[in-house]
Amino acid sequence: MANILVVDDEPLIVKGLKFSLEQGGHIIDTSFDGNDALENIKSKDYDIILLDLMLPIIDGFEVCKKVRETSDVPIIILSAKGEDISKIKGLEIGADDYITKPFNIMELKARVNAILRRMEKSKKIVAQKHLGDITLNYLDRKVTRNSEEINLTSKEFDLLFLLMDNPNKVFSREALLEKVWKYEHFGDLRTVDVHIRKLREKIEDNSSNPVHIMTKWGEGYYFQFKKE
Q1: Which CDD domains match (predicted)?
Q2: Which terminal Cβ of the chain has fewer Cβ within 10 Å, N or C?
Q3: Same structural domain for residues 202 and 164?
Q4: Cβ-based neighbours of 212, under 8 Å, separated by 6 or more
């Protein structure tokens, strides 16, 4: 069971999502504009936010940016905007996933459940992983570099966790999409590239010349670790 906030200005979509997700045992709150969504988020902790982009008063992009100032709650963007630029912008400002309307409700529920499974799994892990100057704490989902905390989104943390848990192992974009986002047959490989770039910007001294998250051209990405 999870607390989920559905934010959309289309009543029929909200009604359908609320009904479907409640059938899975989840507790659903709803907002029909960006301002109300932010008020809900201030007053309650949510496990997942389903966020439309085209909202009255405050649009979804701005809502996402404001949420990311204080929280790493997983955000799945729902939007009729299928253009690549909208997807990339949504991911860059902190969204964890993006699904374009009209969508298959079973696909959406699969993505929600995948996020919840990862969150539950992370609660059971208490150890820390320390590679070089980066320390990842599974229990409180915190990452530090040289003792300075790095603010990561939920998906950025999951991605870094997988790479650090398998140092020097190369993962293709397809493999990362399957293991981190938990879906094989749908999804945009550019989602992986955007998250890798954002991770580099946060943990590397120079994201253009990384020393931690490396690219093996034609194959994929890996976390470089050299034993001293």
Answers
A1: trans_reg_C
A2: C
A3: yes
A4: 132, 134, 200, 203, 204, 223, 224
- Dist CA 171 CA 166 (whole Å): 9
pTM above 0.70, yes or no: no
Please check whether residues 46 and 154 belong to one and the same domain. Answer: no
The pairs formed by 32-36 with CB atoms below 8 angstroms and a separation of 24 or more are: 32/7, 32/8, 32/56, 33/9, 33/57, 33/58, 34/7, 34/58, 34/59, 34/60, 34/62, 34/63
Domain harbouring 70, CATH code: 3.40.50.2300
Quick: pLDDT tens for 94-123.
Answer: 898 888 888 889 989 988 988 888 777 666
Q: Do 107 and 74 contact (CB within 8 A), yes or no?
A: no
Query: Cα separations (Å) of 93 from 20, 139, 160, 194?
Result: 28, 25, 18, 10
- Domain of residue 109: give its range: 3-120
155: in domain: yes
Q: Are residues 147 and 167 located together in one domain of the fold?
A: yes
What's the CA gap between 41 and 175, in Å, rounded? 33
The size of the chain, in residues, is 228
- For 70-121, give the DSSP string: T----EEEEES---HHHHHHHHHTT-SEEEESS--HHHHHHHHHHHHHHHHH
